[in-house]
Design brief:
- The chain has helices spanning about 15-30, 35-45, 55-60, 70-80, 85-90, 95-120, 125-140.
- With about 150 residues, the chain is an all-alpha fold.
- α1 (about 15-30) crosses α3 and α6 runs antiparallel to α7.
- The radius of gyration is 18 Å and the shape is elongated.
């Protein structure tokens, strides 16, 4: 690993949170279950880092200041097997993650549409179901449905 930039990552807290949550969604889609905090904490500790539950919670929520712990961000990138620049710089979502997340969002949107159809049987016209699907797709594209 390179020596750390003393300023830490350049991403603001909200953008870092968005990216970490994308990585968590991706891992959940791969594993079929949420990633336990303990797994991340153990990975970081085994490599000489430290991550408290409180700090992790702040990182996930986007509350607080920009994360200045470059080494922690590098370790997290290692855990998620992404280029460290994704958590340290303003860079694109890795292609494999973007493609998988698009699939996950589509499946979730389909589940919500199916739920609406089952919840209101005979009450929703095909046009209404199409509009629901369109709204879900639009929100998914904006990142609101995950």
């Amino acid at each position: 690993m390179e020596t750390g930039d003393p300023r830490g990552g350049v991403l603001d807290a909200a953008e870092l949170a968005r990216r970490i949550n994308l990585l968590l969604d991706f891992e959940e889609s791969q594993r079929g279950a949420p990633v336990p905090f303990a797994s991340i904490e153990e990975y970081v500790a085994a490599r000489g880092g430290s991550l408290s539950r409180a700090k992790w919670t702040y990182m996930l929520s986007g509350d607080g200041r920009r994360n200045r712990d470059t080494e922690l961000l590098r370790l997290l990138a290692g855990f998620f097997e992404v280029d460290e620049r994704f958590l340290l710089e303003d860079s694109d979502v890795p292609e494999r993650i973007g493609a998988q997340l698009a699939l996950v969002r589509s499946l979730r949107s389909a589940r919500v549409s199916g739920f609406a159809a089952r919840t209101f049987p005979g009450e929703l016209s095909p046009d209404a179901l199409r509009r629901i699907a369109e709204v879900l797709e639009e929100e998914s594209q904006r990142g609101s449905v995950a």
